[in-house]
Design goal:
single chain; alpha+beta; 4-stranded antiparallel beta sheet; 2 helices; 4 strands; 31% helix
Amino acid sequence: MERYANRSGGSGIHSYEIGYDYIKVKFNGTAKIYQWSYLGRAGQRHVDSMKLLAKKGSGLNSYINLHVKFKYDR
């Protein structure tokens, strides 16, 4: 997994991994890794937005909380 840049300094995200059709996110203070995928409830539009934010290093935690918080793959 790649360390999240956390440019704002206040993100709860520790690291992420980007695949062709998914993104995995590890949050600070937890061992669990959450995955959102094209075929999951989040869908391609949200996953692609999350990939861009992860690479940018800013806004991913807010995006997750607003749009896909409970839409991770189970």
